[in-house]
Amino acid sequence: MSLPFNTTQFLTSASTLKQCPPDQGSEFAFCGRSNAGKSSAINYVTRQGKLARTSKTPGRTQLINFFEVTPDVRLVDLPGFGYAKVPEKMREEWHRFIDQYLRHRDSLVGVVVVMDIRHPLREFDQGMVHWAAETGIGCHVLLTKCDKLKPGRRNQALMDVKRQLPDSSTCQVLSSTHDIGRDALIDTLSGWVTDPGTPEPGSARRV
To answer: Can you give the pLDDT at residue 91?
Structure first.
């Protein structure tokens, strides 16, 4: 059964673990570099153009934002990694908070690692993918802005990335502007919640 992403609503923002919603139910987190198109992907999958904040200036998401898909399922928008016109100390605090969330959030069932298809598998991307494989948590790689490449190059880029991923990870292309990939993404995320083979939240202790 597909989750009703089109009725997703903003729930709350958090700057510490204590401010996060109760650690129960299931949630999946979107993460990626600041210019990878993460917020656009969230708005696209929910069919709500202003749900997640987008900006021409990368790095504007400075909190962990929680969105309620159903009473028991949440979508989580993590601060973009990398570029941000803020002091180094603040960037370090963001990254520390993200690390704490990933390690200690028992309701987290999977991560969506968002990458620009033209610049995939940067250091942060590889770190997230391998962390997910080691901990047994779901991992889906989203190659955004695929409309920027012609179909042949797009398919080649997808195959190249797939060859470098652990067997436990999945991968797809997506374009919010050309309506490519929404159904595949919904199927993957819904499967994390409804598939009996999906690990129980918190079953793999974060290390």
So the answer is: 64
Of 154 and 194, which is predicted with more confidence? 154
Cβ density class 23-53: b for 16+ within 10 Å, e for less: eebbbbbbbbbbebbbbbbbbbbbebeebbe
d(C-alpha 125, C-alpha 144), whole Å? 13
Alpha-carbon distance of 48 to 187, in angstroms, equals 18
| 68 C-beta neighbours (distance < 10 Å), count | 18
**pLDDT tens, residue by residue, 100-135:** 999 999 999 999 999 999 999 999 899 999 999 999
CA 97 to chain centroid: 16
| Pure H helices in 47-181 | 88-104, 123-135, 151-164
Residues 156, 28: Cα–Cα separation, whole Å? 28
Query: Distances in Å between the alpha carbon of 34 and those of 125, 132, 191?
Result: 12, 20, 27
Count Cα neighbours of 68 within 13 Å in the Cβ-side half-sphere: 11
3-state secondary structure of 170: strand
Quote the pLDDT of residue 98.
Answer: 85
